[in-house]
Design goal:
The chain contains 13 helices and 7 strands. The protein is an alpha/beta fold and 352 residues long. The protein has 3 domains: 2-108, YqgF/RNase H-like domain (Nucleotidyltransferase, domain 5, 2-Layer Sandwich); 119-209; 213-329, no CATH class. Helix 11 packs across helix 12 (291-301), helix 11 packs across helix 13 (308-329) and helix 12 packs across helix 13 (308-329).
Length: 352
Protein backbone atom coordinates (compact mmCIF):
# COMPACT_ATOMS: atom_id res chain seq x y z
CA UNK A 1 0.00 0.00 0.00
CA UNK A 2 1.32 3.42 -0.99
CA UNK A 3 -0.09 6.85 -0.19
CA UNK A 4 0.48 9.79 -2.54
CA UNK A 5 -0.22 13.39 -1.52
CA UNK A 6 -0.14 16.01 -4.26
CA UNK A 7 -0.25 19.80 -4.16
CA UNK A 8 -1.53 20.37 -7.70
CA UNK A 9 -1.09 23.62 -9.64
CA UNK A 10 -1.54 24.44 -13.30
CA UNK A 11 2.15 24.05 -14.21
CA UNK A 12 3.88 22.66 -11.09
CA UNK A 13 2.86 19.78 -8.81
CA UNK A 14 4.55 18.68 -5.59
CA UNK A 15 4.29 14.91 -5.03
CA UNK A 16 4.95 13.06 -1.77
CA UNK A 17 4.81 9.25 -1.53
CA UNK A 18 4.50 7.32 1.74
CA UNK A 19 4.88 3.59 2.24
CA UNK A 20 2.62 1.30 4.29
CA UNK A 21 4.34 2.48 7.50
CA UNK A 22 3.83 6.19 6.80
CA UNK A 23 7.48 6.83 5.91
CA UNK A 24 8.41 9.22 3.10
CA UNK A 25 10.05 7.20 0.34
CA UNK A 26 9.73 9.58 -2.60
CA UNK A 27 9.34 13.35 -2.86
CA UNK A 28 9.80 15.46 -5.95
CA UNK A 29 8.58 18.49 -7.91
CA UNK A 30 6.89 17.71 -11.22
CA UNK A 31 6.79 20.47 -13.82
CA UNK A 32 4.04 20.18 -16.41
CA UNK A 33 0.29 20.31 -16.96
CA UNK A 34 -2.38 17.90 -15.76
CA UNK A 35 -2.07 15.63 -18.79
CA UNK A 36 1.68 15.31 -18.21
CA UNK A 37 0.97 14.61 -14.53
CA UNK A 38 -1.34 11.72 -15.46
CA UNK A 39 1.39 10.18 -17.64
CA UNK A 40 3.91 10.55 -14.82
CA UNK A 41 1.57 8.83 -12.35
CA UNK A 42 1.10 5.96 -14.80
CA UNK A 43 4.85 5.43 -14.82
CA UNK A 44 4.96 5.72 -11.04
CA UNK A 45 2.19 3.15 -10.69
CA UNK A 46 4.09 0.60 -12.80
CA UNK A 47 7.22 1.35 -10.78
CA UNK A 48 5.66 0.96 -7.32
CA UNK A 49 3.06 -1.73 -7.97
CA UNK A 50 0.43 -2.77 -5.44
CA UNK A 51 -2.46 -0.63 -4.19
CA UNK A 52 -2.02 3.13 -4.46
CA UNK A 53 -4.13 5.84 -2.86
CA UNK A 54 -3.95 9.43 -4.08
CA UNK A 55 -5.11 12.61 -2.37
CA UNK A 56 -5.13 16.21 -3.61
CA UNK A 57 -7.03 19.38 -2.87
CA UNK A 58 -10.13 20.33 -4.85
CA UNK A 59 -9.40 23.09 -7.37
CA UNK A 60 -9.83 23.87 -11.06
CA UNK A 61 -9.57 20.71 -13.14
CA UNK A 62 -9.87 18.41 -10.13
CA UNK A 63 -12.85 16.63 -11.69
CA UNK A 64 -11.02 15.78 -14.91
CA UNK A 65 -7.98 14.59 -12.94
CA UNK A 66 -10.25 12.49 -10.70
CA UNK A 67 -11.76 10.72 -13.72
CA UNK A 68 -8.37 9.97 -15.27
CA UNK A 69 -6.87 8.62 -12.04
CA UNK A 70 -9.89 6.41 -11.39
CA UNK A 71 -9.57 5.01 -14.92
CA UNK A 72 -5.99 4.08 -14.05
CA UNK A 73 -7.23 1.97 -11.13
CA UNK A 74 -6.04 4.33 -8.37
CA UNK A 75 -8.07 5.01 -5.24
CA UNK A 76 -8.59 8.78 -5.26
CA UNK A 77 -9.74 11.09 -2.47
CA UNK A 78 -10.32 14.78 -3.16
CA UNK A 79 -9.87 16.97 -0.06
CA UNK A 80 -12.27 19.78 0.79
CA UNK A 81 -10.23 23.04 0.69
CA UNK A 82 -12.38 24.86 3.26
CA UNK A 83 -11.93 22.16 5.89
CA UNK A 84 -8.23 21.82 5.11
CA UNK A 85 -7.68 25.42 6.18
CA UNK A 86 -8.56 24.50 9.74
CA UNK A 87 -6.24 21.49 9.69
CA UNK A 88 -3.32 23.23 7.99
CA UNK A 89 -3.46 26.46 9.98
CA UNK A 90 0.23 26.88 10.68
CA UNK A 91 2.96 29.49 10.19
CA UNK A 92 4.97 27.24 7.90
CA UNK A 93 3.18 26.57 4.65
CA UNK A 94 4.58 25.71 1.22
CA UNK A 95 3.94 23.18 -1.54
CA UNK A 96 6.26 20.57 -0.05
CA UNK A 97 4.69 20.79 3.40
CA UNK A 98 1.16 20.72 1.96
CA UNK A 99 1.85 17.61 -0.14
CA UNK A 100 3.33 15.83 2.87
CA UNK A 101 0.36 16.77 5.07
CA UNK A 102 -2.10 15.52 2.45
CA UNK A 103 -0.22 12.23 2.24
CA UNK A 104 -0.25 11.91 6.03
CA UNK A 105 -3.98 12.63 6.23
CA UNK A 106 -4.52 9.96 3.60
CA UNK A 107 -2.39 7.52 5.58
CA UNK A 108 -4.40 8.25 8.75
CA UNK A 109 -7.71 8.06 6.83
CA UNK A 110 -8.63 11.56 8.03
CA UNK A 111 -9.10 13.36 4.70
CA UNK A 112 -12.09 15.78 4.73
CA UNK A 113 -13.68 14.65 1.49
CA UNK A 114 -15.15 16.88 -1.20
CA UNK A 115 -17.96 15.62 -3.41
CA UNK A 116 -17.00 15.05 -7.05
CA UNK A 117 -20.04 14.81 -9.35
CA UNK A 118 -20.19 12.93 -12.63
CA UNK A 119 -18.71 14.56 -15.76
CA UNK A 120 -22.12 15.40 -17.27
CA UNK A 121 -23.25 17.05 -14.03
CA UNK A 122 -20.06 19.11 -13.90
CA UNK A 123 -20.67 20.27 -17.47
CA UNK A 124 -24.27 21.11 -16.54
CA UNK A 125 -23.08 23.23 -13.62
CA UNK A 126 -20.57 25.07 -15.79
CA UNK A 127 -23.28 25.97 -18.30
CA UNK A 128 -25.51 27.29 -15.49
CA UNK A 129 -22.64 29.42 -14.21
CA UNK A 130 -21.94 30.66 -17.74
CA UNK A 131 -25.56 31.74 -18.14
CA UNK A 132 -25.29 33.64 -14.85
CA UNK A 133 -22.29 35.55 -16.19
CA UNK A 134 -24.15 36.35 -19.40
CA UNK A 135 -27.11 37.68 -17.42
CA UNK A 136 -24.77 39.83 -15.31
CA UNK A 137 -23.22 41.18 -18.52
CA UNK A 138 -26.67 42.03 -19.87
CA UNK A 139 -27.56 43.91 -16.69
CA UNK A 140 -24.28 45.86 -16.83
CA UNK A 141 -24.94 46.84 -20.45
CA UNK A 142 -28.45 48.06 -19.65
CA UNK A 143 -27.12 50.08 -16.72
CA UNK A 144 -24.56 51.80 -18.95
CA UNK A 145 -27.31 52.75 -21.41
CA UNK A 146 -29.44 54.19 -18.60
CA UNK A 147 -26.39 56.11 -17.36
CA UNK A 148 -26.06 57.79 -20.76
CA UNK A 149 -29.70 58.86 -20.61
CA UNK A 150 -29.38 60.21 -17.06
CA UNK A 151 -26.23 62.16 -17.92
CA UNK A 152 -28.24 63.99 -20.58
CA UNK A 153 -31.28 64.61 -18.38
CA UNK A 154 -33.48 62.13 -20.25
CA UNK A 155 -36.02 60.12 -18.26
CA UNK A 156 -36.39 56.61 -19.63
CA UNK A 157 -39.98 55.35 -20.02
CA UNK A 158 -41.26 52.01 -18.85
CA UNK A 159 -40.70 49.13 -21.23
CA UNK A 160 -37.41 50.55 -22.46
CA UNK A 161 -36.12 47.15 -23.60
CA UNK A 162 -39.12 46.28 -25.72
CA UNK A 163 -39.29 47.02 -29.45
CA UNK A 164 -41.11 50.34 -28.94
CA UNK A 165 -38.72 51.34 -26.17
CA UNK A 166 -35.64 50.58 -28.26
CA UNK A 167 -37.07 52.60 -31.13
CA UNK A 168 -37.63 55.51 -28.75
CA UNK A 169 -34.05 55.14 -27.50
CA UNK A 170 -32.60 55.34 -31.02
CA UNK A 171 -34.64 58.48 -31.73
CA UNK A 172 -33.18 60.44 -28.81
CA UNK A 173 -30.75 63.24 -29.63
CA UNK A 174 -27.41 62.76 -27.90
CA UNK A 175 -23.93 64.32 -28.21
CA UNK A 176 -21.77 62.95 -31.00
CA UNK A 177 -19.45 60.94 -28.76
CA UNK A 178 -22.35 59.34 -26.91
CA UNK A 179 -24.22 58.34 -30.06
CA UNK A 180 -21.55 55.80 -30.93
CA UNK A 181 -21.61 54.51 -27.35
CA UNK A 182 -25.36 54.00 -27.58
CA UNK A 183 -25.10 52.12 -30.86
CA UNK A 184 -22.29 49.86 -29.67
CA UNK A 185 -24.03 49.15 -26.37
CA UNK A 186 -27.23 48.21 -28.20
CA UNK A 187 -25.24 45.88 -30.46
CA UNK A 188 -23.63 44.34 -27.39
CA UNK A 189 -27.03 43.95 -25.74
CA UNK A 190 -28.42 42.19 -28.81
CA UNK A 191 -25.46 39.79 -28.92
CA UNK A 192 -25.69 38.94 -25.23
CA UNK A 193 -29.44 38.29 -25.49
CA UNK A 194 -28.85 35.94 -28.41
CA UNK A 195 -26.23 34.05 -26.39
CA UNK A 196 -28.57 33.77 -23.41
CA UNK A 197 -31.34 32.34 -25.59
CA UNK A 198 -28.93 29.82 -27.07
CA UNK A 199 -27.70 28.70 -23.65
CA UNK A 200 -31.22 28.52 -22.23
CA UNK A 201 -32.38 26.32 -25.10
CA UNK A 202 -29.68 23.77 -24.19
CA UNK A 203 -30.48 24.05 -20.47
CA UNK A 204 -34.17 23.55 -21.19
CA UNK A 205 -33.48 20.24 -22.92
CA UNK A 206 -31.40 19.02 -19.98
CA UNK A 207 -34.02 20.18 -17.46
CA UNK A 208 -36.74 18.28 -19.34
CA UNK A 209 -34.84 15.04 -18.72
CA UNK A 210 -34.67 15.65 -14.94
CA UNK A 211 -37.87 14.69 -13.07
CA UNK A 212 -36.68 16.59 -9.97
CA UNK A 213 -36.76 19.88 -11.91
CA UNK A 214 -40.43 19.35 -12.75
CA UNK A 215 -41.16 18.58 -9.09
CA UNK A 216 -39.45 21.74 -7.80
CA UNK A 217 -41.24 23.91 -10.36
CA UNK A 218 -44.52 23.16 -8.58
CA UNK A 219 -43.37 25.42 -5.70
CA UNK A 220 -44.92 28.90 -6.05
CA UNK A 221 -42.22 31.34 -7.15
CA UNK A 222 -39.70 28.70 -8.26
CA UNK A 223 -38.99 28.77 -11.98
CA UNK A 224 -36.98 26.54 -14.24
CA UNK A 225 -33.70 28.44 -13.69
CA UNK A 226 -33.85 28.08 -9.90
CA UNK A 227 -35.03 24.47 -10.05
CA UNK A 228 -32.30 23.34 -12.43
CA UNK A 229 -29.57 25.08 -10.41
CA UNK A 230 -30.66 23.42 -7.17
CA UNK A 231 -30.95 19.99 -8.80
CA UNK A 232 -27.55 20.33 -10.50
CA UNK A 233 -25.70 21.27 -7.32
CA UNK A 234 -27.54 18.92 -4.98
CA UNK A 235 -27.12 16.15 -7.59
CA UNK A 236 -27.76 13.21 -5.26
CA UNK A 237 -30.05 14.32 -2.40
CA UNK A 238 -29.33 11.20 -0.35
CA UNK A 239 -25.65 12.17 0.01
CA UNK A 240 -26.60 14.62 2.78
CA UNK A 241 -26.81 13.09 6.23
CA UNK A 242 -29.54 15.46 7.38
CA UNK A 243 -31.94 17.89 5.83
CA UNK A 244 -30.18 20.72 7.68
CA UNK A 245 -26.90 19.92 5.91
CA UNK A 246 -28.28 21.38 2.67
CA UNK A 247 -28.27 24.86 4.17
CA UNK A 248 -24.65 24.42 5.28
CA UNK A 249 -23.66 23.22 1.81
CA UNK A 250 -25.05 26.35 0.17
CA UNK A 251 -23.75 28.72 2.86
CA UNK A 252 -27.19 29.77 4.11
CA UNK A 253 -26.44 29.20 7.82
CA UNK A 254 -24.97 31.87 10.14
CA UNK A 255 -21.41 31.85 11.41
CA UNK A 256 -21.29 30.53 14.96
CA UNK A 257 -18.96 31.17 17.89
CA UNK A 258 -19.93 29.29 21.06
CA UNK A 259 -16.54 29.27 22.82
CA UNK A 260 -17.85 31.56 25.58
CA UNK A 261 -21.48 32.16 24.74
CA UNK A 262 -23.65 31.60 21.71
CA UNK A 263 -22.88 34.23 19.10
CA UNK A 264 -24.20 34.15 15.55
CA UNK A 265 -23.05 36.38 12.70
CA UNK A 266 -23.58 36.67 8.96
CA UNK A 267 -24.19 33.62 6.82
CA UNK A 268 -21.09 31.67 5.85
CA UNK A 269 -21.62 32.15 2.07
CA UNK A 270 -19.90 28.86 1.33
CA UNK A 271 -20.82 26.88 -1.73
CA UNK A 272 -22.14 28.16 -5.09
CA UNK A 273 -23.18 31.81 -5.00
CA UNK A 274 -25.34 31.35 -8.10
CA UNK A 275 -27.71 29.02 -6.27
CA UNK A 276 -27.92 31.34 -3.23
CA UNK A 277 -28.88 34.26 -5.44
CA UNK A 278 -31.55 32.31 -7.32
CA UNK A 279 -33.04 30.80 -4.17
CA UNK A 280 -33.29 34.20 -2.46
CA UNK A 281 -35.08 35.61 -5.52
CA UNK A 282 -37.40 32.59 -5.51
CA UNK A 283 -38.07 33.12 -1.79
CA UNK A 284 -39.29 36.66 -2.51
CA UNK A 285 -41.69 35.32 -5.13
CA UNK A 286 -42.86 32.51 -2.85
CA UNK A 287 -43.62 35.00 -0.08
CA UNK A 288 -45.81 36.98 -2.49
CA UNK A 289 -47.60 33.99 -4.01
CA UNK A 290 -47.94 31.44 -1.20
CA UNK A 291 -49.76 32.07 2.07
CA UNK A 292 -47.71 29.53 4.05
CA UNK A 293 -44.37 31.06 3.01
CA UNK A 294 -45.74 34.53 3.72
CA UNK A 295 -46.77 33.54 7.24
CA UNK A 296 -43.36 31.95 7.82
CA UNK A 297 -41.62 35.15 6.69
CA UNK A 298 -43.84 37.44 8.77
CA UNK A 299 -43.36 35.29 11.86
CA UNK A 300 -39.59 35.70 11.53
CA UNK A 301 -39.93 39.44 10.94
CA UNK A 302 -41.66 39.85 14.34
CA UNK A 303 -43.20 43.06 13.01
CA UNK A 304 -39.75 44.64 12.98
CA UNK A 305 -38.71 46.27 9.66
CA UNK A 306 -35.04 45.84 10.60
CA UNK A 307 -35.43 42.05 10.54
CA UNK A 308 -36.64 41.79 6.94
CA UNK A 309 -33.27 40.77 5.52
CA UNK A 310 -32.74 38.21 8.28
CA UNK A 311 -36.22 36.82 7.71
CA UNK A 312 -35.70 36.65 3.94
CA UNK A 313 -32.46 34.65 4.27
CA UNK A 314 -34.10 32.34 6.80
CA UNK A 315 -37.05 31.84 4.44
CA UNK A 316 -34.67 31.03 1.59
CA UNK A 317 -32.92 28.51 3.85
CA UNK A 318 -36.29 26.97 4.68
CA UNK A 319 -37.14 26.84 0.97
CA UNK A 320 -33.89 24.98 0.25
CA UNK A 321 -34.73 22.36 2.86
CA UNK A 322 -38.19 21.99 1.39
CA UNK A 323 -36.66 21.46 -2.05
CA UNK A 324 -34.32 18.79 -0.68
CA UNK A 325 -37.24 16.94 0.92
CA UNK A 326 -39.21 17.10 -2.32
CA UNK A 327 -36.25 15.71 -4.27
CA UNK A 328 -36.00 12.80 -1.83
CA UNK A 329 -39.69 11.96 -1.87
CA UNK A 330 -40.52 12.99 -5.43
CA UNK A 331 -43.70 14.61 -4.12
CA UNK A 332 -45.01 17.83 -5.64
CA UNK A 333 -45.71 20.97 -3.63
CA UNK A 334 -48.71 20.87 -1.31
CA UNK A 335 -49.79 24.03 0.47
CA UNK A 336 -50.61 23.11 4.10
CA UNK A 337 -52.76 26.23 4.43
CA UNK A 338 -54.98 25.20 1.54
CA UNK A 339 -57.65 23.02 3.07
CA UNK A 340 -60.28 21.24 1.11
CA UNK A 341 -63.38 23.38 1.03
CA UNK A 342 -66.46 21.58 2.34
CA UNK A 343 -68.90 20.58 -0.34
CA UNK A 344 -71.90 22.85 -0.57
CA UNK A 345 -75.21 21.12 0.02
CA UNK A 346 -77.20 20.81 -3.17
CA UNK A 347 -80.71 22.24 -3.03
CA UNK A 348 -83.46 19.69 -3.05
CA UNK A 349 -85.38 19.42 -6.27
CA UNK A 350 -89.01 20.39 -5.96
CA UNK A 351 -91.39 17.76 -7.19
CA UNK A 352 -92.98 18.64 -10.47
Amino acid sequence: MYYIGMDVHSKVTMVCVLDANGKVIYEYVFKGGLRDLVDRLKALKSQLGGTIKVCYEASGGCGWLFDKLVEMGLKVQVAHPGKLRMIFRSKRKNDRVDARKLAMLLFLDQVPLAYVPAPDVRAWRKLIEYRGKLVASRVATKNRIRAILRSNGILAPRGLWRATGLAWLMAQELPEFEVIQREMLLEELSQVQAKIKRVESVLKKRAASEPAVCVLKTIPGVGIRTAEAVVAYVDKPDRFRRNKSVGCYFGMVPCEDTSVKSRFGHITKEGPATVRKLVVEAAWQAIRRDQTMKEYYERLCRRDPNRRKIALVATAHHLLRVMHSMMLSGEAWRDPAAKAAPARPQPLKQPA
